[in-house]
Amino acid sequence: MTAELERTPAPDGSHATSVTGPPPLDENAPADLATVTSLITAVIARLREDATTGDQPGTPPPAAFPAALRDRLAHLIYGEGAHDGPFLSVILVVDDVPEVMWRDALLALDAQGDPDFELLVVSSSPTTSDSRILEVLSEFSSDLAGRSRVASTTDATPRGALRAGFAAARGRYVTGLDASSVAFAHFVETFHRLAQESPAALLRARALAQPLRPLRWPDESPGFEPTAGAAPASAPRFSFVEHLAGSPDPSPLGSYALRRDYVELLGPDEGETMPVAAALLGGVGEASDEVVVLLRPFAYPLSPSSSALLEHLSTYLHKVDPRLTAPVVVTTSAPDYAALSRASFAVVVGERSEAFLRDLSERTRLHRAFAGAIDARADGTDVVPVTLFDRWDPTGVASRPASFRVWVVVTTYNEADVIEQLLERLRSPGVHVHVIDNWSDDATPRILADAAQRSDVTWERFPASGDTGHFELEKLLGRVEEVAADCGADWVIHHDADEIRESPWPGVSLIDALWAIEQWGYNGIDHTVVNFRPVEDSWSSGDDLATSFPWCEFGDTPADFLQIKGWKPQGRRLTMAANAGHQVQFEGRRVFPYKFLLRHYSIRSQAHGERKVLRERQPRWSEEERAKGWHVHYDHYENGTSFLWSREGLRRWDQIDQGFLLARLSGVGLAGNPWPGEGPVDDA
Q1: What are phi and psi of 9, to 5 degrees?
Q2: Other C-beta atoms lying within 10 Å of the C-beta of residue 255
Q3: Taking each helix axis from N to C terminus, what angle separates 419-426 and 444-454, rounded to the nearest 10 degrees?
């Protein structure tokens, strides 16, 4: 049976929510979980709608539950039976904060003026065992130890730990504390008084918060210090609007208590539904002038250069798509979940447990996308672990239809040693490869002709009139523009033969990534250029590029930071030749914020470098294009030059995310980055 809701205009023009339809419970029927929860869910959904559209109900909403219905439901849920347990069950969730912090929490509970409570300690941290909790509890007074228990759980998340505590509780009322919280001495006493005044209500007081950061004392023991003064962390009075309209948490854990029999019927939930539903059914017992708990969010220390690098990320995101919100940077153990729920991105700083990361994702619906670190200084002295969350989950996108087509347009000249593996790597259902060959005189044409006989490959020689003896990039790119305009594909990628293109997400193919970002409203992709360097002279023709070159460096010329070489055709010829092919331009272009990877293997050995640069490139440059400032990147090579690199200054590709995750995804913080607010931060 489902309750229905309607809003009726009041004399003052506002709207009140009322319950209509069949009565949710028969007068003589026992309490029915499905019916009660259905009713509460429906009312909360309407209240949330009112809160977000401006129809703001009071506290309590005057017609959300008719008085008779509220009394009947409260009686069914709360009952009037005798209770032989303690007044209050306090659930202390031990998470990722240092042990010294939850010892403080235990010390504060040991000092309570009202002893009518039990303590349930539950760990959501894999590094804190039940036996360790019992060992620490034994160091406190026998009075506290005698009323304390450890509630075990297999769900190693803060929410799972709270559920385990609710399940084990014996008190008439229950409340919860984070491991970093400190309860004031009148914590239990205040809730006891409120319960006597309003026995069926949600009991609610105030909370303060004071952020901390870690430090080491002279003896190397762990400690912490405040980074700001204590400030109010809860609203003065309970408000449905603040709870349901996405405001920062107006009733944080530890600032309220509610009836355990209510929890038993409806099921434990740490989120907004629990206090809101309790307030709907029983009203609110307020102690708005009482502060009963101090929350101590534990902050990961960020240096000025790391902070500046994260500011650069905000600058980049706003430039590439002004509709995106700035990333919320999470440095504490108690995030602002309301702010995170509204954010496009979150950067979680520091080493965090799997439980913490999973809980954050569940509570905010942000997708855990990437994990690694950021290196804000070139000398490697400011490496900070980070986990990136966002709202884009390529694995959650509907399946790509068979009709979705991508054309990869490859330009080439004398690339016989790599062209075959390029074609094999690009081969995929829905991908067509078209090669524009600039009159190669090696085995490239033969390989292309063979591939065209057995796979989805077409090719041509350009210019059609014959070899001009010069590499004329602008004319070659003009032909790319023509092919792209006429191909009829959903996406086009301009590709060189000595490149590997990859999506930002490991394990997600190029075509699937393009399908996904199209569903999210984007029609262009940029690339991060990573140049792979030979450090020894071991390359042979046909060797696999991806595994032969473990050492690399990020591109550092201004052109490397503008590589918009993938786009949705717009039904007309688009221009890219005028800017040497570094970007395609069109009205309404929306470039996806994460850059795809362009892995570049321009020089592969000493012999290859001598042939390519000294004999095949330098003599063939167009003087007209050289006058524009093009084709100058090989000017420093001459006979006798070594084409091998020293490992010094290079990075191992398999470790790139361990220091340069943001650089790989956006280019921020890299040397050579020409964009204001996106470059290096060494001087920050």
Answers
A1: -70, 135
A2: 26
A3: 30
Distance of CA 3 to the CA centre of its chain: 37
**What separation in angstroms does the CA of 391 have from each of 327, 512, 551, 567?**
12, 17, 33, 22
d(CA 250, CA 269): 16
3-state secondary structure labels for all residues of 635-651: CCCCCCCCCCCCCCCCE
Sign of CA dihedral 81, 84, 87, 90: negative
Tell me how long the chain is.
Answer: 684
Query: Cα–Cα distance between 354 and 512 in angstroms, integer?
Result: 28
Q: Are strands 284-295 and 202-209 parallel, antiparallel or unpaired?
A: parallel
Give the pLDDT of residue 32: 58
CA distance 526 to 564: 4
Angle between helices 33-53 and 273-282 (to 10 degrees): 100
More confident residue, 26 or 437: 437
Q: What is the pLDDT of residue 33?
A: 60
What is the pTM (predicted TM-score) of this model?
Answer: 0.79
For all residues of the chain together, what is the average pLDDT?
A: 87
Measured CA to CA, the distance from residue 532 to residue 39 in angstroms comes to 61
Q: Is the pLDDT of residue 393 over 90?
A: yes
Measured CA distances, 540 to 375, 551, 610, 639 (Å): 35, 17, 14, 22
Q: Which of 387, 386, 381 is nearest to 684 (CA)?
A: 381
CB atoms inside a 10 Å sphere around CB 214: 17
Residues 6+ apart with CB under 8 A from 301: 213, 214
Q: Which of 389, 446, 386, 379 is nearest to 412 (CA)?
A: 446
pLDDT band at 343 (very low <50, low <70, confident <90, very high): very high
pLDDT digits (tens, 9 = 90+) for 186-220: 999 999 999 999 888 899 999 999 988 888 888 88
Q: What is the mean pLDDT of residues 7-13?
A: 39
Cβ burial 525-544 (10 Å sphere, 16+ → b, else e)? bbbbbbbbbbeeeebeeeee
pLDDT of 269 higher than 90: no
Closest to 562 measured CA to CA, from 588, 532, 584: 584
Which residue from 17, 24, 70, 20 is spatially nearest to 47, judged by alpha carbons? Answer: 17
